[in-house]
Amino acid sequence: MAELGRRKFLGAVGAAGIGTIVTARAAGAETAGRGGGVVFVGSYTSSPPAGHGLDVASRSGAALRLERTVPSVPDASWFALSANRSVLYATNELVPDGAVTALSLRAPANPRVLNTQPSKGSAPTHLSVHPSGRYLLTANYGSGSVVVHPIRQDGSLAEVSDLAQHTGAERDAHAHQVVTDPSGRWVLAVDLGADSVYVYRLDLGTGKLTKHEQVVLPSGAGPRHLAFHPGGRVAYVLGELRAEVTVAAWDAARGKLTLGEVVPTVDANAPVPSYPGEIAVSPDGGFVYASNRGEDTIATFAVRDSGRAISRVGNVATGGVWPRHFTLDPSGRWIYVSNQRSGTVNWLPRDPKTGLPGRSQGSLAVPSVATVLFR
């Protein structure tokens, strides 16, 4: 498929040397907020230069340091934690036919593989744990499907209990994300190829999905990910093919997503295409962030009207190239960006009052890096 071919190409572009670290400036380290703890870093092992798969890193101040690579977790492009944070789940995106892996965190700094299960589709790019703790939900980008794996008592994965296949009207379907809404009642899947957000019911007894609604965005929008406002009544849908955020009202009682205003993530004269990568909301709900891979920036949006309106207040360089993913640290004072092409995780201080990130204060080299998760 054309989109899958583009993904493999992008994953193959340059990165930095293994394990090199540039420590944060002293002032940055002093204001890092909550430090320490375990950090998981995922990278592509099948894309040159080959990444490590799953790395465990430690944190001192704001700076990350690689501690060890966990074997047998190839192409780890996304992570999710179990409800009690005792099990880590990872996509194995580029392995033949696609797979997902469960790892015990009984010793958090030394994850142990429990088992790996086929994802029943190609290029699984995203996964999440249902709030019930009973099911793992995975989006297969290559084959455009969403699958459900029951979670056993020890956290390992049983065989797939259901598969929902998407169909694109103008392009092949490419499911890119699957999450549960804040109420826990609905499962939402974002499909880039179908220009749609699917809303499902999940039967907790059988592990079966039932389609409730398909919300179709304008042709060519290419929705990639969505993030909910903490109030639970608004979702922000990030377009990858069109660099924009669509603000959507969310009615949890009816499982109804209503599309609203559309706000660009870049200026009109920005590099084309911009290929936005990730979207997130600050813990206080005051700001929305989106990464732009074309211009290598994080866009910041100020939130108004209880989340129902946003305005872009600035774009800041990520300190690297091709920001596939970013995450806020537990304190909300630092943003960690996975710059895939430069092979660096960069950390940027975040002003909680203005919402704006500052310049990169340091970086950790991880070839073909894809994602970072704080435990």
CA-based gyration radius: 19 Å
Which runs of at least 5 residues are low in confidence (pLDDT < 50)?
1-35
> For the record, what is the CATH homologous superfamily label of the largest domain?
YVTN repeat-like/Quinoprotein amine dehydrogenase
Please tell me the total number of domains.
Answer: 2
Net shape:
globular
User: Whole-number average pLDDT?
Assistant: 92
Taking strands numbered 1, 2, ... along the chain, how are they ordered across the largest sheet?
1-28-27-26-25
- How many angstroms separate the termini? 35 Å
Q: Strand pairing plus helix content: what structural class?
A: mainly beta
Biggest sheet architecture: 5 strands, antiparallel
User: How many strands appear in the DSSP assignment?
Assistant: 29
State the share of residues found in helices, binned by percent.
Answer: under 10%
Query: Tally the helices: what do you get?
Result: 2
Q: At the first level of CATH, what is the class of the largest domain?
A: Mainly Beta
What percent strand?
over 45%
CATH architecture name of the largest domain: 7 Propeller
The fold-level CATH name of the largest domain is Methylamine Dehydrogenase, Chain H
